[in-house]
């Protein structure tokens, strides 16, 4: 005869029942805060299923982890529905298999693709590059201005990572309110070059560019090539500590802007659609590139991203190295982004390298660097 549970103990079925009741209670509170019309939407349904309760619990925990609040009950319901759709997309993509990368839930999980692209991936505007085309030169790996044809005869090292050499500051966060990726790339490339030349890694000011660079739009798009032009004419950049980032354009602080912690003497550009030359350049210093933000990149977690994506250049990032993934054999670029360190591989993404033509997501179309 089976023994009965000892007095004072709780059986597993009882615990499971308690958990379900708690979830139902959370869902009841969530739904009763909504107007009846919102509850009766097809997306919400007339019957509350266990999957709904589990997803709601996950959403509530996600809100707490990312300190996310909403203005009213209708917005909360809408964000829950977006969150659910994104989680289903992430899990379906990972289940599909055959990819060299993995997606994951992150701080962008309550944004639609359109919202995300508008907030974080539409900051780059090359405009008319005629003023910069005089710099369409091959450059040298030392970063001092001019590659010779002989430099291209030797193959670059098989792998390179400026992070391991101490030339890369931790990824920063441009935020959702300021379309300033171009400023982060201008700064990141100058930070790297300054370390290579001086041995000192100094975090420089993006806000100085946002406020003071008259060639670009501050929080309303810009380009790293024009950013280099402004830094050259200004005589240099000050530090992030002296001129901190606010994610909003303000009046230029000319006193702070006159303090120069790093200087450049010009800029160079890599001929487009040549990843071998680009590889040689990256072995010399970090370089700025523009990309189209591809499908799923919003939720990139780890691995070698391989698309799909096109060549509608709308976001600027910094290439700080390259290598080969030992698991898949895929060649990749190491790319520093400006979406914070909670995204991707601590703020970096590895993107497929040597795909030919414009490169993955157009990464080989607009490559520039300071010297």
From TrEMBL:
Key word Phosphoprotein present: no
Pfam families: Inhibitor_I29, Peptidase_C1
Protein name, per record: Uncharacterized protein
PANTHER family assigned: CYSTEINE PROTEASE FAMILY C1-RELATED
UniProtKB keywords: Disulfide bond, Hydrolase, Membrane, Protease, Signal, Thiol protease, Transmembrane, Transmembrane helix
Gene name of this polypeptide: LOC100824847
Organism expressing this protein natively: Brachypodium distachyon (Purple false brome)
Domain Cathepsin propeptide inhibitor: 59-116
Family as reported in the entry's similarity comment: Belongs to the peptidase C1 family.
GO cellular component, one term: lysosome
Gene Ontology MF terms in the entry: cysteine-type endopeptidase activity
Positions of the Peptidase C1A papain C-terminal domain: 156-371
GO annotation, biological process: proteolysis involved in protein catabolic process
Keyword Signal applies: yes
Transmembrane segments: 12-34
Record Gene3D superfamilies: Cysteine proteinases
InterPro entries tied to this protein: Papain-like_cys_pep_sf (IPR038765), Pept_asp_AS (IPR025661), Pept_his_AS (IPR025660), Peptidase_C1A (IPR013128), Peptidase_C1A_C (IPR000668), Peptidase_C1A_papain-like (IPR039417), Prot_inhib_I29 (IPR013201)
